[in-house]
Amino acid sequence: MKQGLSLRVSQHLALTPQLQQSIRLLQLSTLELGQEVEQMLDDNPFLELNHDEPVPDERSGAEPASPGSADGDGGGVSSSSSTAEAETSGGSDAPDAGSGLDAPQDWEGEGTDFNPGDDGDWGASGDAPARKNNDSSDGEIDATELARSHESLTAFLHRQALALRLSEVDRAALRFLIESLNDDGYLEDPLEDLAHGLAGADADLEQIDELVHRFTVALRLLQSLEPAGVGARSLAECLTLQLRALDADEEGDPEVIAAALRICAQPMELLARRDVKRLTAAGGASEETTRAAMALIARLEPKPGRRFVDTERNIVIPDVIVTKVGRGANVRFRVQLNPDVMPRLRVHDIYASALKAHKGEGAQALAQRLQEARWFIKNIQQRFDTILRVSNAIVERQKNFFVHGELAMRPLVLREIADELGLHESTISRVTTAKYMATPFGTFELKYFFGSALGTETGGNASSTAVRALIRQFVSAEDPAKPLSDSQISEMLKEQGIECARRTVAKYREALRIAPANLRKALWWGICPERADIGG
After folding, report:
1. Which of 209, 241, 386, 454 is the most buried (most CB within 10 A)?
2. pTM here?
3. Residue 103 DSSP symbol
4. Which residues of 327-352 are buried (b: 16+ CB within 10 A; e: fewer)?
5. What is the pLDDT of residue 77?
6. Alpha helices in 249-303 (DSSP H)
7. Residue 517 host element (H or E)
């Protein structure tokens, strides 16, 4: 075979490490970004927090430093695009708030800063959301402080256990079970598994049996503590413990409590379906008593540990804040990044200067770490720039929502925003996932503002989000004794000029977590058994 040389031209896309990091940071949530920043601060000595940047004091109304200002000794350059805010009004185009991923930027300087900049309009102005209740006094605290002050379920149970006169072995067994509860107050693992896990693989059968006996005694003690139902191993046992507590305290009708106990002994599927006939036959009580027992069970707490869960971790911190400016025809919306979620980072000036003067062994590896620090700061800036650009475009497209609410939402798909900003759909998808926007109507994920289109009689389109809002409105206004079926809701939507099939209504209803008509009717009967004859 004859050998020869040939020249071939081809094109291929190569993702540089900087671009890969930029894409990865873009899809991270606020919590994940904070963890990533902490990790980078630990790994890279050239990266540090910018403590020189003043934090606005809401109590005094102090304004932060200008976004264009530099640090006194660092010689850093602040990022003006990271604090850009755009005001969207009628007919005006949203300004370009940043370059996004697709536009290169010059990034120079040893002391490069990434500062959140001017957030004076948020927290310092009268339009900022109040941190206190409307009727707050000096002795009251906000919800976040209250959540911090709440003791955990385990601490609450340990405090009660101190009042019990137990031997050291029984006290240790009770302490072990308390620590084994989940956040809802349930004991998920069987006692045998807990005994095997505590004794180890070398334990004999006699030791295991002794541990199971100790745990059985400790479980009875645990289930006698407050809140009622704690230590249950199933929903039926949790409800049964609460009913027995009511019976012991002589609260409620004994006949109804006895019927409720018999209902809890039946499969939970019957109670979930509110199958009154089968529960009446199984419980041996009258239908009226069975309905009263079902209403009593509905008032019980299925998760005894719910009120002890740290509510602060469930607080959604918005990435973008939208505030209304002006009134009437002059109303417009200011879109700005939330400075509380933006990390204050900069390159360590002393280390960077020392590396510049040092040309010895290992300088190349340190120079690479310095470049990584600069890339990280730049990619974080581009992340927030892109989020702001996308948010501006969303507010411009969904202006009616910010004025009238979700009923005025218009259809919107990712491609529209991508074409407008010159980005790829995948980039828009990453930006709108796990990123939140605070609006005058509440805090929503950015994906909430996107919805498919449903046809109307006039030839236009209606947003699926607006249709779901209409369904919720119809159900909230229905007669509880005669709830609307999916077919009836579909007809009502057609009267509004929206073509929506029954199956589509069922899908939207399930997405809204609204029970079907028969369960809504049964639930109302359970609450109002004296009017169970209404509605046929």
Report:
1. 386
2. 0.59
3. S
4. eeeeebbbbbbbbebbbbbbbbbebb
5. 33
6. 254-264, 268-272, 276-283, 287-298
7. helix 517-527
